[in-house]
Amino acid sequence: MPIPTISLVTMSPSRQNNLVSLQPMSRNCRNPLPVFCTDDNISQCVSYINQELSSLGLSSYMEQSSAGPAGLSAVPALNAAFELLQVHRHTMATLEELEREQLKKSSTLDHMQMSNSRLKDQLELSIREKSGLHETERQLQLKIKTLQSCLKTEKDEVQKLQSIVASRASQYSHDGKRKERELAKLKERLSQLLVDRRDKKLAIDVLNCLGRADGKRSHWKTTKVAARYGEEPSWQMYKSMLREYEASQQSLMLENAELKKVLQQMKKEMIHLLSPHNAPCRGASTDDSQERLDSDGEETTGNTSRELLDPSCDPAREQLTNSIRQQWRKVKSHMEKLDHQVQNHVESSKELIPRETHEDEMERLRREVQQCKEFIHTQQQLLQQQPHASFDDETAEFLSDCYTLEEKERLKEEWRLFEEQKRNFEKERKYFTEAAIRLCREKKAFEEDRASWLKSQFLNMTPFANRSRCSSADGYSALSISSEPESRKSSAKSLSSKSPNYSSFSTPKPAPSQSTTVPSSNKLDRTFRPNPDTR
Description:
Layout: H1 5-10, H2 13-28, H3 42-56, H4 74-199, H5 223-229, H6 233-274, H7 284-308, H8 314-348, H9 355-385, H10 393-459, H11 467-497, H12 521-528
Helix pairs in contact: 4-8, 4-10, 4-11, 6-7, 7-8, 10-11, 10-12
């Protein structure tokens, strides 16, 4: 057995040389238990052991016995052996304790490694959940932006519809007033022609009868008489013509003044009827003021017609005045009803009229206005030509019958247009109720989707949640969010594919509701129907 290096350091050089001499001998020995001490090196071994014991901090009392070199004192050797045993036991106990500590630390290290791997997995899962929530939030933000843009476009279209309805109402009232004035003028002219034809007797009419200034009967003036009085016959004719022209001009000025008054009154009433603040909820005060305006306008129109008509045709004048008053009242009531219907339609309707339809309708109205202007111009020319033409009683009756039939046909056409507009308004109200039902259903689906998303988010808040549950919840929310825009796109395509076959006031028909939990269209129609007492 080789000698440890620590002994070589602590021993003296002479002893080291002695021990080095023993190493070849021990190396050459091939016994399983090498020989340390022999009879020849007892003293060297004792000194070596004492030196080792002193280096280990033990008492070195191993001495040779006095009996001779072959003997060794037993007490110090036993004490040294006991101390070595105690040191060995202490070392073994310390070694076991260190092994236990190492085992604990290794188990703690394994536990920390497992906890670290588990926390890494949880961190990756949280990152994936966070990315999924960010994607869902982004989709919801996009959806909110699209809904806001749709709401803005709907508001713009509603404002356009309100302006279109107001312009059309003003145009219709304008046309009604103009037609009414034309009718009054034509009836007045017809009554004048009838009265003139009935009162005219069979006689020779003297055109441009020359009268004297003193009121006496004028005589035929020849060249001799003119030469006697120093004046020419043409001067008398010119004077009479000037007087007639002045009288006609004065009457025309009075008539123009009266017509201007009537026109101002009609303008006031039109402004009162077409003003946006003229609501039917004003009550009896508005009705009384309108009745006063009606009576004033009727009195002015009646006075004008009385001045223009001959005093001998009182029944015809009264009949004409009453007919004009009745027609004016009908037009005013009709305009009030239309205004009320338009206000209700603007407040409740969400459907829109396309811009192309609006432009086509405006072009059609312009053409109608141009045709009406041409028709009025033609009528004025005919009325100017009528006094110079000679008609008999049969022709006058025939013309009166023609005017009456034409008026009846025009009234029938206007009534038909009114009924068609009424049907269109009813259809639009029905479409609005269906749109409200569809909006309720979409709102309910959105609330359900939102509740499911909040539920899945609440379930995913726990750190040790099941991954399959999280993935299924994320997939369900993403599927529901992605499916809702697709359903809206399909509904929009179905709406755009249906072309309206109604008039310019009609709107596209929305998809019918099939939800059993939403109220029916009849109930909503009864709810949104305006009260007839408030009109």
